[in-house]
Amino acid sequence: FADLVLETWDLQCERNGREHRTAEMGCQQLVVRRGQPFTITLHFSGRDYEAGVDKLAFNVETGPCPIETSGTRSHFAVTDFPDESGWSAVVQQQDGGSLSISLCSPPSACVGRYSLTLETSTGYQGTSCHIGDFVLLFNTWHPEDTVFLRDEDERCEYVLSQQGLIYQGARDYITSTPWNFGQFEDDILSICLKLLDTNPKFLRDQNRDCSRRNDPVYIGRVVSAMVNCNDEDRGVLAGRWDNHYEDGMSPMAWIGSVDILKRWKKFGCQPVKYGQCWVFAAVACTVMRCLGIPSRVVTNYNSAHDTNGNLVIDRYLNEMGEEDRRSKDMIWNFHCWVESWMARPDLAPGYDGWQALDPTPQEKSEGVFCCGPAPVKAVKEGDLQLKYDIPFIFAEVNADVVYWVVQRDGSQKKSTHSSVVGKNISTKSVGRDSREDITHTYKYPEGSEKEREVFAKAEHEKRSLREEDEGLHLKIKLSEGANNGCDFDVFAVINNATDTERVCRLMLCARTASYNGTVGPQCGMKDLLNVTLAPWEEKSVPLRVLYETYRESLTQDNLIKVVALLTEYQTGDVVAAIRDVYIQNPEIKIRILGEPMQKRKLVAEISLVNPLAAPLNNCIFVVEGAGLTDGQQVKELEEPVEPQAQAKFRLDFVPHQAGLRKLMVDFESDKLTGVKGYRNVIIAPQP
């Protein structure tokens, strides 16, 4: 027999990409999902392949030290039937000298970049030829993959969707900000694989790390650690919360993960400055979706950061409502983390499903700044001993808050305050731009029998709310929305629910604040020493907050914290109320001109009105959208924008992908920062 000579081959990147739902990663490389067959074509010259005579076998290898026993190398012959347990190769059809072969990995294979080698032998003669590389991802469509998700709409949202909404603002005023996850954009896959190869566990033991890359629990833990740089591990983002961001990007300015991941790679894996919780969570979500693990960003309002682990957050206020330095535990207005969907074969049955992963550096876990994966089910059931980090997340959604009012003589009065922590836990709905409330997945209804059982299991005594009802009630209300550039009113509403007259002191104070709970200077206050309430009377006391006074100290989080203290003279009892007021930015208007079609030019008209009484200088628009724009488009306006005038520009772009897309815009200037807007565009496929 003459030798069988392999002349050319075709990895069929385009066809395999379509079938494996990875086509948007481009057809330059083969990207496939585990457990699902993919087809390659081999062209032989000299003579045709003969089944009985010629033996064909493949070698697949991943990582720097591939070993069969670690699952990072496999050698398998072309057979007539697929092998259910391991890698397999089956001849699909033969057409003269060309041979179509279907290859398939087991649904538990390690993910990562593989090299593929073909070995041909006839009798005793054999040759081997390296025919290319491919990347293997997790497969949420495969019933035996540990990340299998049943619902197709959910698979589309949590693995394939490159854009989403992240919830911010305040519990009483929930806002959404658009985010470009961009997990299929150019180079993002290779950056995500680089992130896995930069992690300290890989550098310590490459063989062990690569062999564990079949496990989404392991991958989730690595990603949660690598998105922050707090362990000197060359992580992606540096966190900063002090409003000094001049030597980097303000966390409020980002509108997507692509820019961040590309900067990290471009500057030799130096941490990108700066991130805050939603930025850490969104970048982790991009990496997880890119690797094929269903993931979403969730927001918890009034999130407790319990430093001493006793599930009680002690806050100390002086008589003017100012926080005392003794307040170590923080309550964040909101805090974002990621949930990823996976089975937990490492735990007892019942904990599969959504797992919380928190890449924001807060506490060390096993010596590293990472958190999770923690089964959301375990948080709800109070199973604090399971892996990983459940007590920390349990506290974020369940801790009690006690406000102590420190009088002038140093004595402390425990104020009454209703349960506030862990409210409106939110994520984007599947297939729609509305908010889905998932609080019920983290906790049982407040005051229910089940809630009491869970707290008993978690050794947490929940204060009953009724003991506090001393007959005096205090609430802070807002007349209507508070707009940036305008004055607004807040009201302390006091209620005497007894049949005796009460004489009180009311202290109302407003301060600019950051979303992690720290406060700035005062921007409004009222101290009424003599408020008399007749039996059953309700009074409303207004406090006007002026733009003049909050303008200078308003942080980029646009929050003002209002504290009210009501002290009854006769008993000395104190009632506290706290409310965060969100200062609304102006709206960015986006008009799309032209017929939205793939590979055809479109124009976006983007504008915003300056609501402030002073001109805006150094105005910049940043626009991006996966599948729409070619990377980020930046437009710097040459002229200042006068009060009530319009900042506007036109952007030409050529969408390269069809389907529902989001065009996202960020606006920056000297006095107005982090203003966001987006527009949904449905791009028709090229005829």
Give the overall average pLDDT.
Answer: 91
Q: Strand portion, in percent?
A: 35-45%
Number of strands: 39
Shape: elongated
Largest sheet descriptor? 9 strands, mixed
Query: Compute the gyration radius: what is it?
Result: 29 Å
Amino-to-carboxy terminus distance? 50 Å
Structurally, the number of domains stands at 4
Structural class: alpha+beta
**The CATH fourth-level homologous superfamily of the largest domain:** Transglutaminase-like
- The oligomeric state is single chain
Helix content estimate: 10-25%
The largest beta-sheet arranges its strands as 1-3-7-6-5-4-8-9-2
Q: Can you tell me the CATH architecture of the largest domain?
A: Alpha-Beta Complex
List keywords for this structure.
687 residues, Coagulation Factor XIII, Chain A, domain 2, Immunoglobulin-like, 4 domains, 9-stranded mixed β-sheet, 13 helices, 39 strands
Please give a quick description of this structure:
It is built from 13 helices and 39 strands.
Can you put this structure into words, describing what you see?
The protein has 687 residues and is α+β, with helices and mostly antiparallel strands. It folds into 4 domains: 5-137, Immunoglobulins (Immunoglobulin-like), CATH 2.60.40; 152-458, Transglutaminase-like (Coagulation Factor XIII, Chain A, domain 2, Alpha-Beta Complex), CATH 3.90.260; 471-582, Sandwich (Immunoglobulin-like); 588-683, Immunoglobulins (Immunoglobulin-like), CATH 2.60.40.10. It has 13 helices and 39 strands. Strands 1-3-7-6-5-4-8-9-2 form a 9-stranded mixed sheet, covered by helices on one side. Strands 20-17-16-14-23-24 form a 6-stranded antiparallel sheet, sandwiched between helices. Strand 23 and strand 24 form a beta hairpin. The two termini are 50 Å apart.
